[in-house]
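Thread: "does anyone have the structure for this chain?"

Original post by V.I.:
We have the sequence but no experimental structure in hand. Need at least a predicted one for the grant figures.
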Amino acid sequence: MRLPPISPSELSPEQRPLYDAMKTGISSKYDLFTTTRTDGALLGPWNPWLHQPELGTAFWSVTQAMTHFAVVPDRVRQVVILAVGARFGAAYEIYAHGAVAAARHGMGARRIATLAAGNRPEDLTEEEAAGFDVATALLNGGVLPEPLYRQAIALFGQHGTNELIYLVGHYCFVSMTLNGFSVPVPAPEGMA
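Reply from O.Q.:
Generated one for you, tokens below.
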């Protein structure tokens, strides 16, 4: 990890409001995986954002908006996020959203492993498959092919299709944050 986690007792006056907002938001949504150290320091992408609070606040606002205004089913969102994480080899992202997919949506280990390997599971629903295909096409670069765009419109409407595109872009950014700062998967409890 290239940026040391900041314990709450070490926060600057500029960092404190962002820390408090992220801590509240994270704890209300992500109780399924490790997001903090035992001293309360944030892990994952939140720690790097905290190091530069003037930008981190903007990044956190986008993250909150992506969640608050979501219309695409969360199960599809998790498929998309795992596809993005796999494309960039963002270990923390795969760890975190694999846990969400398993616990909240009952996704099996095989499906999660297939997504984490960057492959398309055979048992995806029509909506999940469309999300995966849109994400994969965008991650491969170039303009999203018209048939995929039209399929997304038919399944999710314009607002949902916009959300899919923004979701891929946002989690590309999250993956870059995680990889750029070498954010690891936390060690299991009791291990160093």
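V.I.: this helps a lot. Helices lie at 15-29, 46-51, 53-68, 74-88, 91-105, 109-116, 126-139, 146-180.
O.Q.: and The longest helix spans residues 146-180.
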